[in-house]
Amino acid sequence: MKTESTANIYRLKNLGLPPLATIEDIANATRLSPEYIKYLAFRTNFLYKTFTIPKRSGGNRKIANPSRALKGIQGWILRNILDKLSSSEFSMGFEKGTSILDNALPHTGSTFILTIDLEDFFPSITGEKIFGVFNSIGYSRSISHILANLCLFEGRLPQGAPTSPKLANLVCSRLDSRINGYTGPKGIVYTRYADDITLSSQSLNKLYKAYNFIPFILQDEGFSLNPNKTIFSGTRKKKSVTSLIISGDTVGIGREKYREIRSKFHKEFTGITTNKEHLHGWISFINSVDRKSSIKLKNYIACLIEKYPDSEASKNFLKITEKNKTQ
Q1: Packing angle, helices 164-171 and 127-136, rounded to 10
Q2: Sign of the CA dihedral with 237 first, then 241, 246, and 248 last
Q3: Which of 55, 115, 194, 307 is disulfide-compatible with 93, CB 3.0–4.6 A?
Q4: What angle do CA 195, 198, 202 make, to 5 degrees?
């Protein structure tokens, strides 16, 4: 007769997850000593460097950067456990193969859009919920406790650890299910990109009702909305979803952003600024989310190269073009 622990090990193996039953199993899998695993798991509060960065909306965001050793074992947990688990279908951020474009596309064709920001997203997720993620997939209470501790800072999910984004999505699976359970039957489209929630509908009244009801779900799940970053948009206001502009059935970066980016390239080619890596990043970004604007930008760059052939930017882009031809 199988014991509960044996059954859990079979379950973990069937899920393709490492069958960790003891701290020695974790040590063997990570090639660290059991004593060092204990040190990392129970001294995490002393293994982070914290700093703040300014938020766009004002105030500061606390970033907790784990030590090299702690980040290493967090990377192992991410690759071998968390990345093998599925988040909800409504979660578009921090998932392989998804982007801000995937978050915006479901809302095309909608007349009205509501965007909601979750306040203090990562710190709102408690150690108890992280323990629940590991315990629910089959790890024992003691192993779940160790794995959770390795991913926490001061009992909360730290913004800065490699495991935090995926864990946040897994914790939010129930939140996603509950919100869609309310919005779906009403014909409201729901997606979430990290702490950005987007709802869209043909009826503004339905979105107002959803806005009044959803805070109760958020509160029950341990979250709260930021009222200063709640935006209703529709026929008279530009519809923006995670920085992309929705116009009818199309999604793109929008005219204002395109002009801003084009100006950056002009300054680079005329020698006003020098940041070629930054420009290549913009090319890559636009190509991934807005093919039409990407073609326009490439044509504009070709014109700049022709107009300023001796500029450092022209020489750099021509080198890359020649390199790509030979590959």
Answers
A1: 80
A2: negative
A3: 194
A4: 170
Answer yes or no: are the C-beta atoms of 168 and 125 closer than 8 Å.
yes
> Which DSSP string corresponds to 177-192?
HHHHHHHGGGT-EEEE
What are the tokens at 119? Answer: 């306040």
pLDDT in tens, 226-254: 988 899 998 888 899 999 999 989 999 99
The amino acid present at 173, given as its one-letter code, is: S
d(CA 302, CA 299) in angstroms, rounded, equals 5
- Quote the distance between the C-alpha of residue 178 and its chain's center: 20
Do 19 and 9 contact (CB within 8 A), yes or no?
A: yes
Alpha-carbon distance of 87 to 174, in angstroms, equals 10
Amino acid letter, residue 192: R
CB 188 within 8 Å of CB 194 = no
Which two three-digit tokens encode residue 172?
């939010």
User: What are 74-101's pLDDT values in tens digits?
Assistant: 999 999 999 999 999 999 999 888 899 9
Q: What is the pTM of this model?
A: 0.89
Buried/exposed 102-128: b ≥16 CB within 10 Å, e otherwise: bbbbbbbebebbbbbbbeebbbbbbbe
Is residue 312 helix, strand or coil? Answer: helix
Note the pLDDT of residue 4.
Answer: 58
CB 57, CB 229: distance < 8 Å = yes
Which residue, chain included where needed, has tokens 């501790």? Answer: 149
How many whole angstroms separate alpha carbon 255 and alpha carbon 292? 12
**CA-based nearest residue to 213, from 179, 168, 255, 162:** 179
User: Distances from the Cα of 275 to the Cαs of 132, 303, 308, in angstroms?
Assistant: 45, 19, 17
List CB contacts of 99: < 8 A, sequence separation 6 or more. 92, 288, 289
**Would you state the pLDDT for residue 327?**
47
How many CB atoms within 10 Å of residue 133?
Answer: 22
